[in-house]
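Please fill in the sequence for the structure shown.

STRUCTURE ENCODING:
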């Protein structure tokens, strides 16, 4: 017994589900140390972050005192330092975009075709690796700092931009008086996360 129009309805359902397919690129948790928490998109509960857990758009990850976490998206690796709060704003076939609310994050881009697809956002602006290499972004309530440990990193704020070249570190802050973005060069960092 066939229901009239059922084949057509099935075809429409298959076409709709194909459009809702998840992206081909997802992340996973590599290593963790200490207490690391996650909150899935749309959920209001913090859970203990486990190794090999998938990471996708909307997930939020925080680390406690003396904690660390490593996130892997293909060949790209992100490492979170202690007291770090990161949200995955976009993770799909075209872009890997993380919002760094506070703390420290390193980014290791290994494939030339991924250069320009990775972004780290802070209140001050957007940081995008411009070459294969290793970069770091730190964010606090006062400012953001970024370092191109190996390679090159581009900063784009609402009224300015700056190329941070190999070995350079810069500090960025928004002046409340003139609402303009300011920056100064800073000394490179050498701490456990960097090493």
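FILLED IN BY: designer on duty
SEQUENCE:
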């Amino acid at each position: 017994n066939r229901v009239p129009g059922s084949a057509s309805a099935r075809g429409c359902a298959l076409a709709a589900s194909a459009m809702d397919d998840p992206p081909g690129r997802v992340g996973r948790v590599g290593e963790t140390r200490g207490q690391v928490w996650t909150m899935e998109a749309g959920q209001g509960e913090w859970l203990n972050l486990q190794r090999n857990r998938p990471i996708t758009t909307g997930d939020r990850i925080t680390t406690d005192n003396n904690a660390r976490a490593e996130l892997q998206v293909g060949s790209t690796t992100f490492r979170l330092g202690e007291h770090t709060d990161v949200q995955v704003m976009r993770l799909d076939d075209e872009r890997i975009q993380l919002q760094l609310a506070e703390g420290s994050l390193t980014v290791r881009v290994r494939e030339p075709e991924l250069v320009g697809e990775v972004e780290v956002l802070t209140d001050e602006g957007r940081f995008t690796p411009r070459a294969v290499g290793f970069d770091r972004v730190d964010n606090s309530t006062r400012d953001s700092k970024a370092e191109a440990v190996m390679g090159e990193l581009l900063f784009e704020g609402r009224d300015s931009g700056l190329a941070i070249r190999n070995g350079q570190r810069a500090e960025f802050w928004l002046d409340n008086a003139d609402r303009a973005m300011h920056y100064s060069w800073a000394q490179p960092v050498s701490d456990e996360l960097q090493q």
